[in-house]
Every structure is written in structure tokens, then in C-alpha cells.
Amino acid sequence: MRAGIAEVLERIAQAFHGLAGAPGTDQIYDLDEQPALRLLSPLAEGADRIAAESALAAGYELQCPLPFPVGEYRKDFEEQANHPYDTRGEFDGLLAKIQADPRNRILELDGIRQTEGDKNLAYWKVGQLLLRHSDILLAVWDGIENKTSVGTAGMVARAGRDRIPTVRILAHQPDCIEFRDHELTGNAWRALAADDSMEQRIRQILLPPQPPAPSAAVPNQARDCKEQQNHGTAHPPKHPPEVGGNSIRCAYFQHSEPKLTPVASSYRLFFAALGKRQLNGWSDSYQQGALYQWDAIETAITKLPVPPPATVSVETELRNNVRKHFLWADRLATYYADEYRGTYCLMFSLTFVAVFLALLSGPFKIFEDLFDGMIAKLSPWLTFGELISIFMILGLWFLCHRRQLHERWLDFRLLAELLRQRMFLLPIGGMVSLEMPDYATEHDRSYGWVLWLTRAVNRAEGLPAVPAGGFNQAYRQGYMEYLAELLCDQVRYHAKNFHRNNNIAKAIHAIEHYLMYSIIAACLIHLGAHFAQEHFEEYKKTLEYVMDITVIAAAVLPALGAALHGLFGHGEYKRVADRSEGMLKKLKSIVNELSLQGGTPLSAAKLESLAEQANEAMSQELTDWRVIFRAKPLEPHI
After folding, report:
1. Cα–Cα 20 to 30 A to 517, which of 322, 390, 487, 601?
2. pTM
3. Do the beta carbons of residue 274 and residue 504 sit within 8 Å?
4. What is the pLDDT, as a whole number, of residue 445?
């Protein structure tokens, strides 16, 4: 058995080092910690300890989630007269080796053993934790399936259900080593020695999903990404949208600091005027906006127990790796959102301007009299202005399409929100996951890359660096306050988001009603003026002016209404407001449940359940948001 475990670990290490040292891999991880070989083991007797010792000998990091605090877990290894070796001494020796290397980590869960059910639940929880953090499961067991077991058989069954690649070594036949993968082997067991499926899976784990093979019409993706890095340009890579997530990856890792542009400012002013009903903060930099969000997270971090000096802790992981990725993804998401929204604001506005310029050059007597014939002279220039407006609309659409503003906004916002959810779960050992509807993922090729990067960030941290004592009462109390603070921040966000988007929806709705009434009034006035000319000759000139004005109003106001309706449709302000209102109610209910506990900390399982409830609600809202807005790419509207 020892030789079989060592063989598997060696093959994984060879595949890992072959990829980690390959040209270009360092560029993929240049905004992240380098990937590391890591084994997770609860250090139970037998195969768990053999794997731990083999991993340490092979240079792996070792992270050990224990079902109980160390002192309580040690009771599982009672000395027996006929035991062939000192099992408790072996356990203590392994703990000493693990603690001697700062890369290694021990996480003591808060399991109890008052009853046999409590004990089984503790083992089930540690198994779930292992599966959530595993890229590949290594299992040594007798091969007898038992889906309800809290031991190895149950873990293998859950790994198959959750599509976790698995290597199994049969306990009674240790030279029989097989690999199972839901995609590469069709969930069937194949002999490891005769197949390279495991190496293929390791490649897919470490490297981002690849886009479709480039055709002659599509520029070489790797070359474009490399050129962007070499020249340090702030411009996005020159890829058409069909390339999908690869150019998004280039933009994420190699984008310069985003800056506010006139296009983005147009939307910010629109949102400030109609949504916030104040102009304060409309010109803030993207860095300021992201740091403002982090202030609330930093307040939550201070609720966690203070770690010992000069030690790696959950706080340092949040403030370093997670903070770095979250702030960067949030800045890019906000930048591309402003650019995209500013583009469609200008496009719809220019549509209205084009109609207005066309009418100015029309044969209206009121203009000839007011401007003393100047309109006739300016007519070619007005037509030229109309053409310029149309070309500007087409130019804005082309740049939006070329720069992938829509795709990048959606992907970076998805990434930022998944990293936000990661902050909810990291201190309690949870992992972020998101399931998109099948009909959406079939046409959403960059979605996989976002999940890949989220998983890479999760993997870089591994198990939470909880102080000695694990999930004890003080730690659970700190996490409960931390979770409540993060949830309260989201409650405040959704309250503001509901009111601001609802304000815009109501304002546009009201303006459209006034425009409709004004158009009807203009038509009625025009008809009245037309019939009045026959009876009031002395007011003929005035009535002609009235008819000109009403004709212009009847043409311009529908154009203005159409522009506003375009803004309303692309912004989905009412739908966004409704979603935020629903999220507000759900998150408040979780906060209330936490506040009812007073100073009594909940169990780690209950806290994780509440965090998962919040994450599930946020994931559903995020999925709905992405599906809605992905179906709204910007098209030229003339």
C-alpha cells in the first residue's frame, strides 16, 4: 500500500512540476501565489498517515482538518495491548513534523462525541471539508460501495456525485491503482498505469480553460496576450468577442489602472441625477470606489480573534490574497460597466439628436422667420450634423464591440462577486461554487474561466489558518460577528441599490407618461390650429407657427421617448430594484437569526449553514443578473 500511495503522489508531482515550470505558466499566476503541491489528510490510522508521511517525504505541503480538537481526537487512538505499534505516539510524531514547517496547517473542527451519532456527524463534516478543498481524491479502501457511509466508501460516492476526479487503491490488492473522472473516463475506473487521464485532469486544473482553436480569421491568442504584456499597453487585446474568456484573462492579469473617461462620466452623471438624486462622488476614481467597499470588509475582519504575532492567519489571508484579487476585479468590473452603460447612454442620446437636427432643416416657417433665413443657409450643415451623429452612433457601437465592454463587465463583475462570497466562507472553511443554467452555459464560454480563477484563489489559501484551538468558542463568536457585519454591509448595499434603481425606473416611467400626454396634446393642438385657420384669418401666421411647433413636438418627443425606453430596457432598472428588494428581505432574516443569539456562539456547522444560505441567495441573484444582462448585447440603434 505504501508503494502504491507513493507512486500516485510521484505521478501527480511529475505532472505538476512539468506544468508549473512550463513557459507561460508564471504569466497565468502572476497576480496570484504560485500553485503548490498539497495533501489534505485527517491523520486517521492507516492509509491517512501513510499518505501524510509519503507526502512530506515528497515535498508536499500538508494540511490536516481534524474532526475534533487535538486532545479529543487523540482519544480515538487508545493504546491496546495487542496493537502492533504505538498509534498515539505515531499521531503525536506526525503532528510535530507538520507543525515544524510553517507551510503546513492543522484545523481543529468543533466535533463532539456525546453519542455515536455525534461522532459520525463529526467524521462526516471533516469528510465534506476534504471534498470541498480537493482537486483530486486519493482513496484507499476495500472497493465495497456504501453511499451512506461516513467513511471512505461514502466519500468516494460523494466524490463521484460532485464530479471530483478520484484515484483508488484497493486495500486487498494495493498494486491495483485506478482513476475515475466524469469527463475523461466517463466516470468509469481505468488502470492508472495504462492511461494518462490523471495528467490531463491536472493540466485542466492548473491551466485556464482554452477557447476554441483559432481559425485564420482569428488572431493568435497567445501572441496577442504576449504582445500586450511586452508593450505594457492599456488597450485590450485585439480579439473579436467570439474568442471568449482568453482575452478576458489577458485583460485581467495585464490591464493598467482604469481611469474615468468622458464616456463613463456620461452614465455616472445620468445615474447620479436620476438615481442618487445628488452629484456627490460621481467623479471618484475606481480605486476610491473599491477601497470604500473594502472599508466595510475591514471592519468585519476586526471582529475575528486577534492571531498571535508573526503567524499566518485568516486575517492576513483576507488582507493579502483575497483583498488583492477582489479590489482588482471590482475596479475592472466597475470600469467596464461605466464604459458600457455610458456607451448606450450616448448612443440613445445621439439618436434623439439626429432626429432633432433632421427636423431643424425642414420647411418650417417659424424657423425661417425667427432666424431670418439662416436655417436655409445652414441646412447642409444640419444634414452634415445628422450624419455625424449617425456615424458617432456606429463608432460607439464598433468600439463597444471591439473592446468587449459588455463581456468584460459581466465577467469581471461575476468574478468580483464570487470573491466577495469567498470572504463569507473562508474563515469557516467553506468553498464558493456557482451553477449556471444549462441553457446559459452552452453559450457562455468565458464563464468557465471565471470559475477557474475563483477556484485558483481558493486553492492558494487552502484551509483557513485558524489559531490553535480551532473552531473553539472564541473563534466561533468572532466569526459570527464577522459574518453579521458582512451581511449588514450587503443589506445596506441592496437598500441603496433598490432605492436608486427604483428612482430611475419611476423617473423614466413618469417622463414617458408626460411625453405620451404631450404628444397627444400636440396632435390635438395641431388639428385645432389647422381648422381654426379657416375661421380666424387674422391669426393665420400665429396658427402656422403653432402648427410648426406641434409637428416638431409630435416628431421629436417620440424620439426622446424611444431613447428613454432604450435606456430603461438596457438598464433593467425595475428588475434590478425588485431583485435587490428580495435580497434585502432574505439577508435581513439571516442577520436577525444571528442577532437573536446574543453572546452565545453557534456551532461551526450552524454558522456555515447560515453563511451558505446567504451565499446561495447571492448566487441565485448573481445567476439571474448574468443571464438577464448577457442577453442584452449592445446593437446600433438608429
Report:
1. 390
2. 0.85
3. yes
4. 59
